[in-house]
Amino acid sequence: MPRKNSVPRCYFSLRSPYSWLAYRDLVDRHPEVAAAVEWRPFWEPDARSERMLAEAGGSFPYVAMSRAKSLYILQDVRRLTRERGLEPTWPVDRDPVWEVPHLAYFVALDEGLGREFVDRAYRARWQEGRDICDRATMAELAAELGLPPDHVSNAVDDEELRRRGTAALLDIDEDGVFGVPFFVDRFNKFWGVDRLPDFVRSVAGTAAAPVPVAAAELDPGLGGDQGHAGGCG
To answer: Which domain holds residue 142?
Structure first.
């Protein structure tokens, strides 16, 4: 019996540096695959979303982040960004509510600007060091993209978007996603930046060499949020 959704899926989190790097690799090196996949958000639910998810019969994978893992991620992301010629600015998160940017994504998606929103939000967070859980930041990004600032910045208060968020969290549960970046192609699943080439080959049926990238010396320094619980980072 075929899956109800045979479209390749990419689960992304605007919080995760690894998800950001996988996004850049997919868009920059394999744009044809990036255009063919369904982009699905992954985020740690707040208390209200967690309650709605439980009431719908779902659950969210949660594993606490250890200090050792946090320090490793700092070192690892520094290596990976250097390889790609990227210069990150580590954000500092204070009491983040991840529904703010991830429910805003649905507003952009409905306007046909889902990818553009993801791209701009990643840049704001990982290259400009901005707090994307700040509603004012969301309003500014929305205005830049020609989206309704009030709707984007207040997406977290929209009941319909909350219900869509619950459905998205149920999709995470159904697909067995435990961290990001996570890619699904039919029955094949791939987790992590290093599995992206395998996902691309699965989708495209080719083993094309990736576009080479330049190296750059950079020092991202220390930031507040070194990844997310239960994921690749």
So the answer is: 9-204
Report the candidate in 205, 214, 204 with the shortest Cα–Cα distance to residue 34: 204
Task: State the pLDDT confidence band at 92, using cuts at 50, 70 and 90.
Answer: confident
Residue 2 falls inside a structural domain: no
d(CA 218, CA 119): 22
Q: What angle do CA 149, 150, 156 make, to 5 degrees?
A: 110
How many domains are contained in the chain? 1
- Read off the pLDDT of residues 65-81 as tens digits, 9 standing for 90 and up: 788 988 898 899 999 99
CATH number at residue 50: 3.40.30.10
In a domain, residue 220? The reply is no
Beginning with the edge strand found earlier in the chain, give each strand of the sheet holding 188-191 in spatial order.
Answer: 38-41, 9-12, 182-185, 188-191
pLDDT of residue 43: 96
* Residues annotated as catalytic (active site), given as ranges: 16
